[in-house]
Specification:
- Strand 2 (132-137), helix 6 and strand 3 form a beta-alpha-beta unit.
- This protein has an eight-stranded mixed β-sheet, with helices on both faces.
- It is an alpha/beta fold.
- It contains 20 helices and eight strands.
- The structure holds guanosine-5'-diphosphate.
- Residues 108, 110-116, 193, 248-249, 251, 274-277, 281 line the site of guanosine-5'-diphosphate (GDP).
- Guanosine-5'-diphosphate binds at residues 108, 110-116, 193, 248-249, 251, 274-277, 281.
- Keywords: Cytoplasm, Endoplasmic reticulum, GTP-binding, Hydrolase, Nucleotide-binding, Ribonucleoprotein, RNA-binding, Signal recognition particle.
- Residues 269-282 form the SRP54-type proteins GTP-binding domain.
- This is Signal recognition particle 54 kDa protein.
Length: 440
Amino acid sequence: MVLAELGNQLSAALRNLNESTIVNEDTINTLLKEIGNALSKSDVSMSLIIQMRKNIKEKVKLDQIAAGLNKRKIIRKVVFEELIRLVDPGVPLWKPVKGKSNVVMFVGLQGAGKTTSVTKLAYYYKKKGWSTAIVCADTFRAGAFDQVRHNAAKGKIQYYGSDTEKDPVVVAKAGVDIFKKEGTEIIIVDTSGRHKQDSELFEEMKQIETAVKPDNVIFVMDSSIGQAAYEQATAFKNSVKVGSIIITKMDGNSKGGGALSGIAATGSPIIFIGTGEHLTDLDLFDPETFVNKLLGNGDIKGMLEKIKEVIPEDSSSLKEIAQGKFTLRSMQQQFQQILQLGPIDKFVQMIPGMSQMPQLQGNEGNLKLKAYINILDSLSDKELDGKKPITQKRILAIAQGAGRHPKEVLELLEQHKMFEKLIGGKVPGGMGNMGNLLSK
Ligand code: GDP
């Protein structure tokens, strides 16, 4: 998973807190040191880390916590909030308006992953039922239009560009005008990048911005830039009206923390992260979900989004979740549906507790899920519906019935418990009442 190492270290720090016999100033200092080290290793800037530590210290006043309250829980909650704050500028996200033409302009340095992300975003909206189109206004790089043509064909997306016109402003305006006339809902303009932030690039961007009057300007940045993220994003923001950010190449980049936190510090929200070269490798970025995933709490929101794609809205398990309940039967139904999604390694990472199991990558994830389904199939109706507790003796019998190791049965029950807690909102960052989410 994205930033897996950081996630493991943060989880370890919180585990140490849980296991400490007493909670005093020393415990907090040790926790803050461990969190600070973990963030610094993944490239988060020192000034942000210092600020975060200060915020946590200010929010957790041990001598003011009333007797009887769980200090560890309070500390965990504050840490959770501060981790979110690190990647969340707290401004509302831009949302396109259905039924009207929304013009989105992409900017960024060459090689950042602009053209790839343009196609991914067009495909993302197309899948959701919006009419989409791409305008290639990169007349600087030879082959840019061919790349758009090729990518757009893969996603069966309409596009516009020119092999002969050299003025990007003319191409951008012509393309946007054509698609606006056709009533296309999402019109994405891909602009050119340069190797460095040069004045010519910025001038060209400004002219295109004036010509097409975008509803949103998306700045695309490569995650490997690390701590330089803030400065680079600021340079772009000072030139055009950057509204949102996409960070690319978060797959396999253990140091993406610098880009994520640095960018958030500019005040522009990160809306998506790129997690691969394929059309569908674009994940919505939600700070709370991201931190939950990072800490191995799973990604219930993302999971429900995926589940909603394959499970009928009126299914009993979705209704149950909406009420904050989650039985083993819901788990069984959902795992069965998930298998229909095909390769599920990304999905497995959304399951609480599973994100930290490196052995579940690729096909292993599918096999694990099948094993879990076998186990769930061996439960009685009462056990599935939570009407009968599962005893030690039953665990052995279930394992035997499913042809699996008892340890796996325990593991599954443990995961179910975590799910249940998250869905019922019993952990910090849990989903609480899921009704809102499901009705979105
Ligand atoms: P542009 O110059 O900004 O338009 O960049 P491109 O879209 O041409 O991307 C540059 C390279 O990065 C290409 O080889 C892409 O396949 C690759 N790329 C883009 N986004 C991602 C991503 O999220 N993950 C990975 N692994 N590669 C990416």
